[in-house]
C-alpha cells in the first residue's frame, strides 16, 4: 500500500506542469525511498527523470514496491481542482486498479478524486551518464535560462550552445535574422573542461523550462558524447524534496 501526504498540493501541480506537455503517460515507481519516474517523449529524443524523496513528504508509507501507470494530462486536470495551499494525500492499495487523491483546504473542505491506473510497459532506462563525464556544467538562474530559450525561439528552431574560455554563448539563426546571448562567469557558475559547440531543439528546451517554478537555479551539463542534461532541484517549503532532470540528444549538423 502507498500513502503519501503533502502539506501543499502546489508542489505536485508544478511538477505535473513540467511533465505533461513532454510525456502523456508514465509509470510512477513507488518504494520506501520515495517516488520515481522515467519516461521518454513520443519521438524518443528527450528523456525525463524525476525523484521525490520519501522524507520530503509530510507523511509517507509504502510497504512494498508499487508501480502506478498514470495519464499525466488527466492527473494534472485533477490537481488543478486543488488550491496550491491545500493538503494532498495520495493512496493506492496493492493490486488495485485505481489511485485516490484527497485534497483538504484551510476550511477543512474535503475533495476526493479517483483515477484509473494504466497498464504501461515498464521499460526502465539507464540514466545516460555519470555527471563526472560531462565536459561543461553551467549553473544558471532558472528564470534567466527560461528567458534565453523563449527569446531565441522567436528567431529560430534550434540553439547552438558554445562554451569556451570563461563564457557560454547561445546562438540561434533564422531565415532573415540571428540572435546571440552571451553569459560570462560573472553571471553564471561555469566549469569548462573542454571547448564545445552543440545544437539543440528549442521546442524541447522550452518544454524543459516549464520546471522553472520548482527551483531558483538550473544546472545545464554538456558533452560531445552524451545527451544534454538540464537539472532542477525541487524545493518544497524551501527544503530539498527531489529533482527533475531532462536529457536531450543534440541536433545533427544538417538538421
From TrEMBL:
Pfam hit, one: PCNA_N
Record's keyword annotation contains DNA-binding: yes
Entry's family note: Belongs to the PCNA family.
GO cellular component, one term: PCNA complex
Stated role: This protein is an auxiliary protein of DNA polymerase delta and is involved in the control of eukaryotic DNA replication by increasing the polymerase's processivity during elongation of the leading strand.
Main location: nucleus
UniProt keyword Nucleus present: yes
Keywords (A to Z) from UniProt: DNA replication, DNA-binding, Nucleus
Molecular function terms from GO: DNA binding; DNA polymerase processivity factor activity
Subcellular location: Nucleus
Ranges where the Proliferating cell nuclear antigen PCNA N-terminal domain occurs: 1-124
Name the record gives this protein: DNA sliding clamp PCNA
Residues annotated as domain Proliferating cell nuclear antigen PCNA C-terminal: 129-251
